[in-house]
Write a structure and sequence with these properties.
The structure is a homodimer of 337-residue chains.
Chain A lengths: L3 H8 L3 H9 L6 H14 L5 H8 L4 E6 L7 H17 L3 E6 L3 H10 L5 E4 L8 H7 L4 E4 L10 E4 L1 H14 L4 E5 L3 H6 L3 H16 L2 E5 L5 H14 L5 E4 L5 H10 L9 E5 L2 H6 L5 E3 L3 H16 L7 E4 L3 E2 L12
Parallel strand pairs in A: 1-2, 1-3, 3-4, 4-5, 5-11, 6-7, 6-8, 8-9, 9-10
Antiparallel strand pairs in A: 10-12
Chain A binds a DNA duplex (30 and 30 nucleotides) through helix 2 and helix 4.
GO molecular function, one term (chains A, B): DNA binding
Protein name (chains A, B): LacI family DNA-binding transcriptional regulator
Keywords (chains A, B): DNA-binding, Transcription, Transcription regulation
Chain lengths: 337, 337
DNA sequence: GCACCCCGTCGAAACGATTCGACAATCTCG
DNA sequence: CGAGATTGTCGAATCGTTTCGACGGGGTGC
């Protein structure tokens, strides 16, 4: 194995000089720099990660805590992970993969053993047992999603309030005057990943502001429940011409149910969804949608961490603006009615 | 930060003794052991990963190289990654995530810098540029999938030959006498991840052995191509009563096309697929299938690596037996004909 | 031409573990 | 009962970097 002293000898300098060339922490003359870099290349030198970590108390590794077993969001998670790794590499860091199951002990373990310099925690719940720990750890961290008590923590996510508003705005601009939000099943609102409430709040506020009538309905993603929800919705709101769906698994079922109830999309009913682009594109009728910007979240999360590692201060909350992609499922309200 | 000398002092022993208690590499009296362990607990001591890596030249980290951007197989990859992390932890190792894109340089980097002790490489191609490098690296590695030249490499995957055989066997036992394999598009056979050929070989050999007639057809996963393939197949093989589908994206299209051609499943035609269980279950007609045993592959891959790290010798090739799950798409051939 | 400062480099001391040889004390066996 | 093997522990060297203080030499200001 080739080490720093080998490089130093060959370049005719001391090991510390080589180190300074590598880190740039002290000025080095151009000539020396060139000689050192040449030696490094010729010898194929790579600093020993362990030694480096020991001496500098920096491992240049980030931990990424992922829910590795769950179901629906998998491709989005993958995109996110990809963005994290890629961005981390751009900042000369690597990524250590931890599972949700390792829980608090896992976090403490990698932190105490100085295996990583910082943490990214995905899939944060409203009442997340890890938040007190994260606050007390000496390592910087970034959470994906917002817990109930977010103070003292750095969090990032799609701005769900703005998302709800944006969907209503889109429908309003198309001339719709009576809209509904079909959300997650009741238990999600209760257990709470928080984003459900925020979408609903944005939705309702925007509808109010635009002076259009609105309803919010939770919805189980089963064929029977969907059927019933749709029937009730159409019965109670005969003037309904637009719906926003924030419920991935129910989306295809809903489309089907509406069509069976005689509503053509988009002629009779405009549909906007909050879901991954993939799903929106591959639906029976391609659906106008707002996607979770997984890549951007991943990238920004890493950049927040890097800033924190460099001692810069960063905003507590980062809310990414929603981007609505128009597809065929939403159209101006027909002249009739 | 609490270090080994702190533990040693509190337990009234030397640092080396603490180390030996932790590693078990030398006999320690029961009494001392207890005292040391107690001190460790009381102080919350965790060995510094970098220091440990430096002194022992073992990082206790595995690299997992994943294709993080691709499309279809995502949930399977995730399962696999989950199994790798979980199993690695059981062996007191962590997992570093690398993307495919980092390529050979990435492998060399983590190897040379002693960041990791071993490598797991997913998504290996028939002609994979990384195989020569893996052969020459001093680190042990395990490949998921088989390259063309596998000698000197440790590989693991589903036994696709046996899979082809198993599908035919299932159909034969149900009384079918004329079957077809609908495989991947031609370019996949050419570019080659290898498994396509092996499935076809197993399929054909088994059909021959059972004395039943068989065809193999590649198949593009587009609506038009599927339509045409199905028509041709039914025209050329009027006695056909069973098909094996080894083409994930085409599966739903094929089911639809067969039914539109007047073949009821399973009354007129039995279908067996090679695809993730998820997909098989959620098809219009739940499909009898053989799945990639992602979890088992991940677990076994890690265990192979651990064995290699311990200096044990392991088999070059590990082929996991297929497990066929019967669903409603396959049934005994009707009494007619 | 002298004091002073800055630039570029060096040497040596950490960093926190593991490991190897040595050694005392206890056992074993003839 | 003594030589030799065994058991349990210690001290010191080592792993490969980074970092800090020091220091020589060339520039600047007066």
């Amino acid at each position: 194995m080739v080490k720093i002293t080998d490089v130093a000898r060959r370049a005719g300098v001391s090991p510390s000089t080589v180190s300074y060339v590598l880190s740039g922490k002290r000025p080095i003359s151009a000539a020396t720099q060139r000689r050192v870099e040449e030696s490094i290349r010729e010898l194929g030198y790579r600093p020993h990660a362990g030694a480096r970590a020991l001496a500098s108390s920096r491992s240049n590794v980030l931990a990424l805590v992922m829910p590795l077993r769950s179901g629906v969001h998998v491709p989005v998670q993958m995109q996110f992970a990809g963005a994290v790794v890629t961005t981390a590499r751009r900042h000369d860091h690597d990524v250590l993969l931890l599972t949700q199951e390792e829980g608090e002990d896992g976090l403490r373990r990698v932190a105490d053993s100085a295996l990583v310099d910082a943490l990214i925690v995905m899939d944060v719940q409203l009442r997340d047992a890890r938040t007190p720990l994260l606050r007390s750890l000496p390592l910087p961290s970034v959470l994906i999603g917002f817990p109930a008590e977010a103070d003292g923590l750095t969090c990032i996510d799609l701005d769900f309030t703005a998302t709800g508003e944006s969907c209503v705005g889109h429908l309003a601009r198309l001339g719709h005057r009576c809209v509904a939000l079909l959300g997650s099943p009741p238990e999600v609102y209760a257990r709470g990943t928080g984003f459900a409430q925020r979408t609903a709040a944005g939705f309702t506020a925007a509808a109010h502001r635009c002076g259009i009538s609105s309803t919010v309905l939770p919805c189980e993603p089963t064929r029977a429940a969907v059927q019933e929800t749709v029937e009730r919705l159409l019965r109670d709101h005969p003037g309904l011409t637009g719906v926003v769906v924030h419920n991935e698994p129910a989306l295809p079922l809903l489309l089907e149910a509406f069509q069976q109830a005689g509503m053509r999309i988009p002629q009779d009913l405009s549909v906007v969804a909050v879901c991954p682009d993939e799903l929106a594109e591959s639906a029976a009728v391609p659906v106008t949608s707002v996607a979770i910007p997984a890549e951007e979240v991943g990238e920004r999360a890493v950049e927040l961490l890097m800033a924190k590692l460099n001692g810069q201060s960063v905003p507590d909350a980062t809310l990414l603006p929603p981007r609505l992609t128009q597809r065929v499922s939403s159209a101006p309200r027909g002249p009739a009615s």
